Amino acid sequence: MKIALGQINPTVGDFKGNASRIIEFARRAQTDGAGLILFPELSVCGYPPRDLVERPSFVAHNRESVERIAAETRGIAVICGLATPAQAETGKSVMNSAALLKDGRVAFLQSKMLLPTYDVFDEMRNFAAAKSQVLFPFCGKQMALTICEDAWNDKHFWNKRLYTFDPVEALIHAGGNFLLNISASPFWLGKRQLRCDMLATIARNYHVPVAMVNQVGGNDSLVFDGSSMVLDATGKVIARGKSFEEDLVYFDSDQLTGDMHAQLEGEEASAYAALVLGARDYVRKCSFQKVIIGLSGGIDSALTAVIAAEAVGPENVIGVGMPGPYSSPGSIDDARTLAQNLGIRFELIGISEIFDTYKKALQKSFAGCKEDVTEENIQSRVRGSLLMAMSNKFGGIVLSTGNKSELGVGYCTLYGDMVGGLAVISDVPKTMVYRLSHYVNSRRPVIPQASLEKPPSAELRPDQKDSDSLPPYEVLDAILEDYVEESHTAEQIASDRGFDIALVRRVIRMVERSEYKRQQAAPGLKISAKAFGYGRRFPIAAQPDV
Fold it and tell me: Cα separations (Å) of 256 from 40, 217, 259?
């Protein structure tokens, strides 16, 4: 039988829109001769719904939408993800389920058994786990239907398993000979290959084909890459969906041949595509049309502006240059040139007079005190206020431009450069900011060369450079990677990297002291294995041992 994978981009809570997308893809697949189409995990309501599932109306809309989908897709079987009511004794409102729709009704229902509670996942908070799963017959096969995490506990692949039970193993031992998996598996660099290797291990060890359909699009901080795939019983990929865009992929369940759609290759291309998709969907799904960005002439704001222009169109981007008393003429020129290259609107608003007014207002209170970081932060907060004024007046969302390196050690100003509704590159280390910027210019040279070459500086005091306060970014980023993403100790980092132990401890103390800032930061787009945000939950009032 010809089977389709409907790789769609649902919006959480948009039942009408999600159902229409499912119906549209199903009808296209039916026209092309498919007898079955699979859609992602919770595709009816969008993933992750989080505490929305506690609202009875939300659960009711799932049922109503599935009834509509079933009625409008007669002639093709549809598997889609939805939230279904849980048994009262579980203490939960819902289960994370998959429904087989056939001949206008729900012909089969399966619920998720393994509920992840690590990193960005908190499914045990919202869902009850299924006690068991069963097979269903289709097109001469005994289909083993699983939902995302159900397939992530294979003893042949993982050295340390998170669960004592493996749903895949149980279903295959019960006679399953074709594994289906509907997923909402978020992207991070390296995740696509990990996902493929894991599914290939399952296929080889159980000698069964595996078909996985994955959600695509951005929902809050998470970006879903799609990259749906089908593997034969040897673990060979025989069908593949595109990355970072909706797709309809066909394969033959008997011949095990299928569509092989091109995917992006390389870290820079993948990271950039993920950031564009995440920014586009965040802006669109939050019902904004325009974005506003402070342009300093530096590399961070330049990359953020490039991403924004591609995500929402240059006509919907406003760049704001806000030179202060220590801004170099070159930085203003670089900001203006970038705006011209991108075709975005550019506004120039000087802050020197406003800064002077602040200092005069504080002169009496600050009598006898030398100028220090206080005055630097005032400049940053003046700029933040101006950006938010532009946001209020023009109805655009402010995109903050800080990178992961700065956010990690607190080299950023609350209510200043941290203001905004989305921190686009907050999971991009400074060294990768440069890599991505060179990648951007390899496609079309839009970022001024001076922005790429000049030493990084906040320009908040005379001749200021980032290196005055921070280690070289190559060193800083290596320490942050080891400490934040790998949880290595200071001693381990110093030994493995050959760094001075005092330097490593200083960076770690900066990370820990800045937790209060990060927990007030705008949501950021996750592209690493461990991003700052709700996937990394540390106390603010603590004294970590470093």
Answer: 21, 28, 10
